[in-house]
Queue: 2 jobs
Job 1
Amino acid sequence: MAHAVEEKPALHMGLPVGNGKLAMWLFLVTEIMFFTALIATYLVLREGSRWWPTPSQVHLVEWMGALNTFVLIFSSFTVVLAHHAISKGDVKTTVRWIAVTLLMGCVFLGIKAVEYKAKIEHHILPGQIHFDQFFGKQGADYQRYLLEELPKVRQKEGASSPVGVKIDAILKELETTEPNAWLPSRQEKRLKSASKMVEELLHDHPDLHIQYVIPQGNIWASIYFALTGFHAIHVICGLIVFVIMLIKAALGTLGVHSAVFIELTGLYWHLVDIVWIFLFPLLYLV
C-alpha cells in the first residue's frame, strides 16, 4: 500500500525582511549613533558650563524653529501618503504627495538659510565671538573693538538718532579718566556694563552689526552649526531622492514596483524628522 509522502515546506534562511529594508535599517542605526554622539556632546558641554547663551543672545527665533518642526512633521505625513498611493497603483496621487514633500523640505531649508544669514551678519560664528572674560588681553581686545566700531555706527546712523544717543552712553561708560579706572576689577565691571548696553541696543535695533560678549559663544556656535549643518545635509540628500522620484515619474518608470523604493526613502525621511524634533527643544527652548 502506497503511503502519501507529505512534503515539508522549504526553509528560507535569513531575516524576515527584504535585503533593501535590512540595509536601510542598518544605515539608520549608524545615523542614530552619529546624531546621538553630537547631541550627547552638546549636553555634556552645556551642563559643564556655568553660563550658556540664551536664544535671544544668539539670534535664535523660537517661532522659526517651531515652524520648521511643523513643516518636517507634515512632510513625514505626506511621504506616508505617497507610499500608500503607490501601493494602490495611483501614480498621479503619488507624484502629487512627493512634490508636496519636496516643497516642505525646501521650505525647511529656506527658513534655515534665513537663520544662518542672521548668524553670519552678526558674526555669531565659531572663533568670531568675543569671550566672556573681561580682563587681561581678551578684555583689552573687546574694549578696543568697541572704541573702534561704535563711532563708525554712530556716524552712519546719525549722532542725534536714538542709536547715536545710546552709543554715546556706551562710549561714556568705556572712556573714563578716573584714577586707576582700568585695574582688572574696574575694567571687568565697565566692560560687562558696556556689553550689556550693546546687547540691549541690538535687541532694539537688530539690524546693527555690532558684536557683544556671548557667554560660551564660540562653543555654542561650533555645536549649533555642527548639529544643524549635518542635519541640513541629510535634508538635502532626501530632497535629491525625491527629485529622482519625480524624474522617474516624468519618464514613466515610476509604478507599483517602486513601492519599496518610496517606503525606504520614507524611513530615511522619518529619521530626519525625528532628529529635528530633538534638536528644536534643545537649541531653541531649553
Job 2
Amino acid sequence: MRNRVFLDNDDINIHHNYNYPKPNIDKKRILKIVLFIALGFIGLNIFIGVIGLIFSKKETVPKYNTYSSPTNNVTDKKEELVYDWDYQSNEMFLDANGKPHLAVVGNLKKSTDRFNDEKNFNVYIGLFNPITSQKEWVKPLMETPVKLSSSDVKLSVFQDNNLYIIIKSKYVFQLDRKTLTFKSVLEDYVKNNENLSIGIAKIEFKYDNYGSAYQIVNNEGKTLVYYPLINKTIPEKQVYLEQRKKLPNPETKTAFVFSSKSSDFPEEKIQLIKYTYSYQYGYPKDDARFSWSRDYCRSGIFTDRDPYQKRLINNWMKEGSRIINYKDFTPNRLYFSAKVIAFNDSFVIITFKPTPAEDDMYQLQFLDPETGAIQKTFPTDLTRAGDKGYLLKDGFIIKNSSKYSYFDYNGKLQNTFEGYNPKFNQLN
C-alpha cells in the first residue's frame, strides 16, 4: 500500500489517498480445481456401480421382503413347534399309588399350522403332573377323527376311582388308574345289559349326586339311568325311589359339609355339619344338602299361616342321602363363603373368608375330625373357595375350575397348574 500526502498553503486539511492493489485471480487454476472435483465424483459413482454389479451377480435367487414381528435378536430363529388343545376338557384323578394325574382330552393344533385350513381332527388324551406341570404323555384316544365343539368332551371319576370319558355323547372310554391305559367300554355296556342291547342313541354322565351313573337314551327312545359298577338300569322317573331304598349290604361312612344360605331363615348363620350315612359301592345315592327351611310335612301349596316345622334338613332329603345322624361340628363359629375341601382320619381341610368383604382372600384351616378343634390356619391368595380337593402324601391340591393349586401340609403354595390348555412340543 502506498500513502501520498498533499499540502495546500490555503487549506489546513490534510488529505490521505489510500490505494489497495487488486488481487491477482488465476481463473485457469480455479477451472482446473472444479474440473478435478467433477471427474472424481463421476469416477466414484462408476466404481460403486461396478462393485454392486459384481456382488449382485452372486445372487441367483431374488429376495423378497417378508413381515416379521419386532425382536431384539439380530438373527431370525425358526419358530418353535408348540401344540395347543382345541375344545378340550380336563379332570384330575389319583392313580393306585396315590399319585395325581391331570387328564386332558380334545383336538390338537400345531402353532405352525395356525393359518392352515386343513386341520387334524384326531382326538388325543394327555396326562400331566399337576405338581411339576410336566407332560407325562399324549396319545391318540380313538381311531376315528372327530371335530369337537366346546361341550363335546366330558370327564368324570367314578366310585372305582377310574376316569371315564364321553366324546360327543356317543363314545365312552375308561382310563384305568392302575395301568394308566385306556379302552372303549361302550361295547361292554351294550353286551352285558339286556336293556341296552338294542343299542344306545345318546349317553351322558348323570349328576354326581346320583352316584356313578350315566343317563342313556336307547334306540327305542327310552331314557334310562345306568349304574355300570353294578350293571343296573333304572327308568329315569324311578331314580328318586331307588335312592331311598334300603341297601342290601351297607357300610357306615362319615362326611363333612357346610350348610347353604337359607331363603326361609336368612338370619341363620352357615354351619359346618358332620354327619354319618349308609353307603354301598355303585348304588344310587343322593348328596346331603343342609339349609334351614320350613317343612310342612306334606305336599301342596302353603301360605305363611300354615303350620310348619323348622328343619336343617327335611325328611325327604334325609331319606335320599340315607343319613343316620348329624350335628353342628363347630358351634358358635362364623364362616363366609365356606367350602369343605377334603378330609380323612387326621384332619378336615376347609376354605373360608374371615369377613363377608368381597375383596377378602380365602383362608385355609385344618380341623381335628373328632373334636372340631382348630389345628392350624393359613392365609392364601385364593380368590375362590375351590371346587374340590385331593389329599396326597406330602400335601394337597385344590381345584378351582381348571386351575390346580398344590399346597404342602404347612399351607405353603408349591405350584399352580393351569389345566385348560397345557402346551407341549412333542407327541408320545
